[in-house]
Amino acid sequence: MSISEFGLIEKYFIKKIQRGSVNRIGIGDDCALIDVPLGYELVITTDTMVEGVHFFSGADPRLLGQKLLAVNLSDLAAMGAEPTSVTLALTLREVNESWLKEFSEGFLGLANQFSVDLIGGDTTSGALILTVQAVGLVPKGRAMLRSSAQIDDFIFVTGNLGDAGLGFKIEKGNDCFSSDDALKKFHQPFPKINEGLAIRDCANSCIDISDGLASDLKHILKQSGVGAKLDWDKIPLSKGVKRYIDTTGDWQMPLSAGEDYELCFTVSPDKVDSIDIDCTHVGVIEAKAGLRIQRLGKTEELVVKGFEHFS
Ligand code: ADP
Ligand code: MG
To answer: 175-180 long-range CB contacts below 8 Å, 24 or more apart?
Structure first.
Protein backbone atom coordinates (compact mmCIF):
# COMPACT_ATOMS: atom_id res chain seq x y z
CA MET A 1 0.00 0.00 0.00
CA SER A 2 1.39 3.36 -0.88
CA ILE A 3 1.88 5.88 1.89
CA SER A 4 -0.57 8.83 2.19
CA GLU A 5 0.62 12.40 1.82
CA PHE A 6 0.33 13.18 5.50
CA GLY A 7 1.69 9.75 6.39
CA LEU A 8 4.79 10.67 4.45
CA ILE A 9 5.09 14.00 6.25
CA GLU A 10 4.63 12.32 9.62
CA LYS A 11 7.18 9.65 8.83
CA TYR A 12 9.92 11.85 7.44
CA PHE A 13 9.39 15.47 8.36
CA ILE A 14 7.69 15.94 11.74
CA LYS A 15 10.24 16.42 14.50
CA LYS A 16 9.95 17.74 18.02
CA ILE A 17 9.83 21.56 18.00
CA GLN A 18 13.04 22.97 19.51
CA ARG A 19 12.14 26.63 19.71
CA GLY A 20 8.72 26.29 21.30
CA SER A 21 8.57 29.86 22.53
CA VAL A 22 8.93 31.17 18.96
CA ASN A 23 7.39 28.36 16.90
CA ARG A 24 4.10 28.03 18.78
CA ILE A 25 2.40 25.83 16.17
CA GLY A 26 4.32 23.75 13.64
CA ILE A 27 3.30 21.06 11.14
CA GLY A 28 -0.28 19.81 11.35
CA ASP A 29 -2.58 22.82 11.27
CA ASP A 30 -3.45 24.97 8.24
CA CYS A 31 -0.66 27.41 9.08
CA ALA A 32 2.20 27.61 11.51
CA LEU A 33 2.26 30.29 14.21
CA ILE A 34 5.38 32.28 15.07
CA ASP A 35 5.54 34.44 18.16
CA VAL A 36 7.96 37.28 17.42
CA PRO A 37 9.74 38.29 20.65
CA LEU A 38 9.43 41.94 21.64
CA GLY A 39 12.15 44.10 20.12
CA TYR A 40 12.82 41.72 17.18
CA GLU A 41 11.76 41.64 13.57
CA LEU A 42 11.19 38.67 11.28
CA VAL A 43 13.66 38.08 8.47
CA ILE A 44 12.21 35.97 5.65
CA THR A 45 13.71 34.49 2.49
CA THR A 46 12.84 31.82 -0.03
CA ASP A 47 14.90 29.85 -2.55
CA THR A 48 13.93 27.19 -5.04
CA MET A 49 16.02 24.40 -6.55
CA VAL A 50 14.88 22.89 -9.83
CA GLU A 51 16.15 19.56 -11.12
CA GLY A 52 18.32 20.09 -14.18
CA VAL A 53 18.78 23.80 -13.37
CA HIS A 54 20.17 23.92 -9.82
CA PHE A 55 21.14 20.29 -9.40
CA PHE A 56 21.92 17.32 -11.62
CA SER A 57 19.27 14.63 -12.15
CA GLY A 58 20.05 11.77 -9.84
CA ALA A 59 21.85 14.02 -7.32
CA ASP A 60 22.50 12.44 -3.92
CA PRO A 61 19.27 13.18 -1.96
CA ARG A 62 21.03 13.61 1.39
CA LEU A 63 23.41 16.22 0.02
CA LEU A 64 20.55 17.86 -1.86
CA GLY A 65 18.46 18.20 1.31
CA GLN A 66 21.42 19.71 3.11
CA LYS A 67 22.24 22.13 0.31
CA LEU A 68 18.63 23.23 -0.15
CA LEU A 69 18.52 24.33 3.47
CA ALA A 70 22.07 25.72 3.42
CA VAL A 71 21.41 28.13 0.55
CA ASN A 72 18.38 29.49 2.34
CA LEU A 73 20.15 29.85 5.68
CA SER A 74 22.98 31.61 3.84
CA ASP A 75 20.60 34.46 2.98
CA LEU A 76 19.65 34.80 6.65
CA ALA A 77 23.35 34.79 7.55
CA ALA A 78 23.91 37.72 5.20
CA MET A 79 21.36 39.78 7.13
CA GLY A 80 22.84 38.86 10.51
CA ALA A 81 19.69 36.94 11.44
CA GLU A 82 19.35 33.99 13.75
CA PRO A 83 17.41 31.28 11.89
CA THR A 84 14.41 29.85 13.75
CA SER A 85 11.94 28.26 11.35
CA VAL A 86 11.58 26.89 7.83
CA THR A 87 8.83 25.65 5.55
CA LEU A 88 9.42 23.15 2.77
CA ALA A 89 7.45 22.86 -0.48
CA LEU A 90 8.21 19.59 -2.24
CA THR A 91 7.13 18.79 -5.77
CA LEU A 92 7.99 15.16 -6.40
CA ARG A 93 7.76 13.00 -9.51
CA GLU A 94 6.93 9.97 -7.37
CA VAL A 95 6.95 8.82 -3.78
CA ASN A 96 10.33 7.15 -3.41
CA GLU A 97 10.71 6.40 0.27
CA SER A 98 14.44 5.75 0.25
CA TRP A 99 14.95 9.09 -1.54
CA LEU A 100 12.69 10.84 0.98
CA LYS A 101 14.46 9.26 3.92
CA GLU A 102 17.88 10.43 2.72
CA PHE A 103 16.63 13.85 1.67
CA SER A 104 14.85 14.48 4.98
CA GLU A 105 17.86 13.32 6.98
CA GLY A 106 20.12 15.71 5.09
CA PHE A 107 17.69 18.58 5.45
CA LEU A 108 16.75 18.01 9.09
CA GLY A 109 20.32 17.17 10.08
CA LEU A 110 21.49 20.63 9.09
CA ALA A 111 18.34 22.21 10.58
CA ASN A 112 19.19 20.51 13.84
CA GLN A 113 22.69 22.00 13.88
CA PHE A 114 21.14 25.45 14.07
CA SER A 115 18.06 24.43 16.14
CA VAL A 116 15.83 25.43 13.24
CA ASP A 117 12.32 23.93 13.27
CA LEU A 118 10.53 22.71 10.15
CA ILE A 119 7.10 24.24 10.81
CA GLY A 120 5.16 23.48 7.62
CA GLY A 121 5.19 23.02 3.91
CA ASP A 122 3.40 21.56 0.96
CA THR A 123 3.69 18.32 -0.98
CA THR A 124 2.62 18.03 -4.60
CA SER A 125 3.40 15.92 -7.65
CA GLY A 126 5.15 17.15 -10.76
CA ALA A 127 8.70 17.81 -11.93
CA LEU A 128 11.23 17.68 -9.06
CA ILE A 129 11.23 21.18 -7.55
CA LEU A 130 12.30 21.97 -3.99
CA THR A 131 11.40 25.24 -2.29
CA VAL A 132 12.26 26.44 1.18
CA GLN A 133 11.14 29.50 3.03
CA ALA A 134 13.43 30.33 5.91
CA VAL A 135 12.59 32.62 8.79
CA GLY A 136 14.90 34.23 11.29
CA LEU A 137 14.96 36.91 13.94
CA VAL A 138 17.04 40.04 14.24
CA PRO A 139 16.89 42.80 16.86
CA LYS A 140 14.77 45.57 15.33
CA GLY A 141 16.76 47.80 12.97
CA ARG A 142 19.98 45.80 13.28
CA ALA A 143 19.87 43.64 10.15
CA MET A 144 22.86 44.07 7.81
CA LEU A 145 21.73 45.55 4.51
CA ARG A 146 23.20 45.78 1.01
CA SER A 147 22.45 49.48 0.93
CA SER A 148 24.63 50.87 3.67
CA ALA A 149 28.26 50.44 2.57
CA GLN A 150 30.27 53.61 3.22
CA ILE A 151 33.12 55.18 1.29
CA ASP A 152 36.49 53.97 2.66
CA ASP A 153 34.96 50.81 4.17
CA PHE A 154 37.26 47.80 3.98
CA ILE A 155 35.77 44.87 2.04
CA PHE A 156 36.10 41.40 3.57
CA VAL A 157 35.16 37.88 2.56
CA THR A 158 34.91 34.73 4.66
CA GLY A 159 36.55 31.52 3.43
CA ASN A 160 38.09 30.92 0.00
CA LEU A 161 36.52 31.85 -3.33
CA GLY A 162 36.01 29.65 -6.36
CA ASP A 163 35.99 26.22 -4.74
CA ALA A 164 32.33 25.59 -5.50
CA GLY A 165 32.92 26.75 -9.07
CA LEU A 166 35.81 24.32 -9.38
CA GLY A 167 33.68 21.56 -7.81
CA PHE A 168 31.01 22.24 -10.44
CA LYS A 169 33.58 21.91 -13.23
CA ILE A 170 34.84 18.64 -11.75
CA GLU A 171 31.26 17.32 -11.51
CA LYS A 172 30.73 18.21 -15.17
CA GLY A 173 33.57 15.85 -16.04
CA ASN A 174 36.61 18.13 -15.96
CA ASP A 175 38.48 15.54 -13.91
CA CYS A 176 41.98 16.85 -14.59
CA PHE A 177 41.40 19.22 -11.61
CA SER A 178 40.43 16.70 -8.93
CA SER A 179 39.99 18.37 -5.55
CA ASP A 180 38.04 16.89 -2.66
CA ASP A 181 37.78 20.31 -1.00
CA ALA A 182 36.19 21.79 -4.11
CA LEU A 183 33.71 18.94 -4.42
CA LYS A 184 32.82 19.23 -0.75
CA LYS A 185 32.28 22.98 -1.10
CA PHE A 186 30.05 22.45 -4.14
CA HIS A 187 27.92 19.73 -2.55
CA GLN A 188 27.95 20.81 1.08
CA PRO A 189 28.12 24.58 1.45
CA PHE A 190 27.91 25.50 5.12
CA PRO A 191 25.84 28.59 5.91
CA LYS A 192 27.86 31.31 7.64
CA ILE A 193 25.22 31.96 10.29
CA ASN A 194 27.64 32.33 13.19
CA GLU A 195 29.85 34.66 11.17
CA GLY A 196 26.84 36.81 10.22
CA LEU A 197 25.83 37.11 13.86
CA ALA A 198 29.40 37.92 14.90
CA ILE A 199 29.86 40.80 12.44
CA ARG A 200 26.36 42.24 12.73
CA ASP A 201 27.42 45.03 15.04
CA CYS A 202 30.56 46.09 13.17
CA ALA A 203 29.67 45.62 9.48
CA ASN A 204 28.06 48.43 7.50
CA SER A 205 26.80 46.11 4.76
CA CYS A 206 26.77 42.44 3.88
CA ILE A 207 25.72 39.99 1.17
CA ASP A 208 26.17 36.27 0.74
CA ILE A 209 28.18 35.19 -2.29
CA SER A 210 25.81 33.01 -4.29
CA ASP A 211 26.54 34.28 -7.81
CA GLY A 212 30.27 35.11 -7.52
CA LEU A 213 32.00 37.94 -5.65
CA ALA A 214 31.97 40.30 -8.64
CA SER A 215 28.26 40.18 -9.25
CA ASP A 216 27.27 40.03 -5.59
CA LEU A 217 29.56 42.88 -4.53
CA LYS A 218 28.05 44.90 -7.37
CA HIS A 219 24.66 44.62 -5.64
CA ILE A 220 26.16 46.29 -2.57
CA LEU A 221 27.79 48.97 -4.73
CA LYS A 222 24.63 49.76 -6.67
CA GLN A 223 22.35 49.84 -3.66
CA SER A 224 24.82 51.87 -1.60
CA GLY A 225 25.62 54.30 -4.44
CA VAL A 226 29.37 53.67 -4.22
CA GLY A 227 32.17 51.87 -6.14
CA ALA A 228 34.99 49.57 -5.08
CA LYS A 229 38.48 48.36 -5.81
CA LEU A 230 39.57 44.78 -5.21
CA ASP A 231 43.17 43.68 -4.78
CA TRP A 232 43.74 40.47 -6.77
CA ASP A 233 46.72 39.46 -4.63
CA LYS A 234 44.50 39.36 -1.55
CA ILE A 235 41.70 37.18 -2.97
CA PRO A 236 41.75 33.99 -0.81
CA LEU A 237 42.20 30.91 -3.01
CA SER A 238 42.60 27.24 -2.16
CA LYS A 239 45.47 25.20 -3.60
CA GLY A 240 43.04 23.52 -5.99
CA VAL A 241 41.77 26.83 -7.38
CA LYS A 242 45.32 28.19 -7.68
CA ARG A 243 46.27 25.09 -9.63
CA TYR A 244 43.20 25.56 -11.85
CA ILE A 245 44.20 29.16 -12.60
CA ASP A 246 47.85 28.26 -13.25
CA THR A 247 46.74 25.61 -15.73
CA THR A 248 43.96 27.45 -17.54
CA GLY A 249 44.78 31.15 -17.09
CA ASP A 250 41.12 31.63 -16.09
CA TRP A 251 41.84 33.97 -13.14
CA GLN A 252 38.31 35.35 -13.16
CA MET A 253 36.68 32.03 -12.27
CA PRO A 254 36.83 32.53 -8.46
CA LEU A 255 35.31 35.99 -8.89
CA SER A 256 32.53 34.93 -11.23
CA ALA A 257 31.57 31.36 -10.35
CA GLY A 258 28.63 30.97 -8.02
CA GLU A 259 27.66 28.89 -5.03
CA ASP A 260 30.48 29.59 -2.61
CA TYR A 261 27.94 30.86 -0.04
CA GLU A 262 30.62 32.82 1.79
CA LEU A 263 29.85 36.31 3.14
CA CYS A 264 31.13 39.56 1.65
CA PHE A 265 30.87 42.48 4.07
CA THR A 266 32.18 45.99 4.54
CA VAL A 267 33.48 47.56 7.75
CA SER A 268 34.55 51.14 8.42
CA PRO A 269 38.32 51.46 9.10
CA ASP A 270 37.82 52.39 12.77
CA LYS A 271 35.86 49.18 13.46
CA VAL A 272 38.18 46.73 11.69
CA ASP A 273 39.88 45.76 14.96
CA SER A 274 36.62 44.54 16.41
CA ILE A 275 36.11 41.90 13.70
CA ASP A 276 36.10 38.58 15.51
CA ILE A 277 35.89 36.00 12.72
CA ASP A 278 38.28 34.46 10.16
CA CYS A 279 38.06 36.59 7.05
CA THR A 280 40.22 38.27 4.41
CA HIS A 281 40.49 41.94 3.54
CA VAL A 282 40.13 42.01 -0.26
CA GLY A 283 39.45 45.62 -1.17
CA VAL A 284 38.02 49.01 -0.37
CA ILE A 285 34.82 50.96 -1.02
CA GLU A 286 35.41 54.09 -3.10
CA ALA A 287 33.31 57.09 -4.11
CA LYS A 288 33.83 56.46 -7.83
CA ALA A 289 31.11 54.15 -9.22
CA GLY A 290 32.02 50.77 -10.71
CA LEU A 291 34.05 47.74 -9.67
CA ARG A 292 37.79 47.76 -10.31
CA ILE A 293 40.54 45.28 -9.60
CA GLN A 294 44.22 45.89 -9.06
CA ARG A 295 46.16 43.11 -10.74
CA LEU A 296 49.73 42.78 -12.06
CA GLY A 297 50.43 46.43 -11.22
CA LYS A 298 47.43 47.77 -13.14
CA THR A 299 43.94 48.78 -12.11
CA GLU A 300 41.27 47.58 -14.52
CA GLU A 301 37.49 47.55 -14.65
CA LEU A 302 36.23 44.14 -13.50
CA VAL A 303 33.77 42.87 -16.06
CA VAL A 304 32.71 39.34 -15.27
CA LYS A 305 29.26 37.87 -15.29
CA GLY A 306 27.75 35.89 -12.47
CA PHE A 307 25.13 33.27 -13.17
CA GLU A 308 21.76 34.63 -14.28
CA HIS A 309 18.61 32.76 -15.22
CA PHE A 310 17.01 33.76 -18.55
CA SER A 311 20.28 35.02 -20.03
P1 ADP B 1 -3.52 22.26 3.51
O2 ADP B 1 -4.23 21.32 2.57
O3 ADP B 1 -4.39 22.83 4.56
O4 ADP B 1 -2.67 23.25 2.83
P5 ADP B 1 -1.67 20.11 3.78
O6 ADP B 1 -2.51 18.89 3.78
O7 ADP B 1 -0.98 20.52 2.52
O8 ADP B 1 -2.51 21.31 4.35
O9 ADP B 1 -0.56 19.98 4.90
C10 ADP B 1 -0.88 19.49 6.18
C11 ADP B 1 0.19 19.93 7.13
O12 ADP B 1 1.44 19.37 6.75
C13 ADP B 1 0.39 21.45 7.15
O14 ADP B 1 0.70 21.82 8.48
C15 ADP B 1 1.56 21.66 6.25
O16 ADP B 1 2.28 22.83 6.60
C17 ADP B 1 2.38 20.40 6.50
N18 ADP B 1 3.20 19.99 5.34
C19 ADP B 1 2.80 19.62 4.11
N20 ADP B 1 3.83 19.27 3.32
C21 ADP B 1 4.94 19.43 4.07
C22 ADP B 1 6.33 19.24 3.84
N23 ADP B 1 6.82 18.83 2.65
N24 ADP B 1 7.19 19.50 4.85
C25 ADP B 1 6.73 19.93 6.02
N26 ADP B 1 5.44 20.12 6.33
C27 ADP B 1 4.54 19.86 5.36
MG1 MG C 1 -5.70 24.06 4.94
So the answer is: 176/247, 177/240, 177/243, 177/244, 177/247, 179/238, 179/239, 179/240, 179/243
Q: Are the beta carbons of 240 and 188 closer than 8 angstroms?
A: no
Nearest to 24 by CA among 117, 94, 163: 117
266-293 pLDDT, tens digit per residue, is 999 999 999 999 999 999 999 999 999 9
pLDDT for residue 306 is more than 90: no
- For ligand 1, say whether the CB of 86 is within 6 Å of any of its atoms: no
Hey, what CATH topology would domain 146-301 get?
Phosphoribosyl-aminoimidazole Synthetase; Chain A, domain 2 (3.90.650)
Adjacency order of strands within the sheet including 40-50: 40-50, 129-139, 82-92, 117-125
d(CA 93, CA 97): 12
179 in Cβ contact with 271 (< 8 Å)? no
- Contact criterion met (CB below 8 Å) for 32 and 26: yes
Query: Tell me: the pLDDT tens digits for 35-59?
Result: 999 999 999 999 999 999 999 999 9
Distance 10 CA to ligand 1 centre (A): 10
- CA of residue 266 to ligand 1 center, whole Å: 40
Q: Is 130 near ligand 1, meaning CB less than 6 Å away? A: no
- pTM for the model: 0.95
The CA–CA distances, whole Å, from 207 to 45, 119, 223, 224 equal 13, 26, 11, 12
Radius of gyration of the chain (CA): 20
- Domain limits, CATH 3.90.650.10, in the chain: 146-301
Report the CATH number of the 5-139 domain: 3.30.1330.10
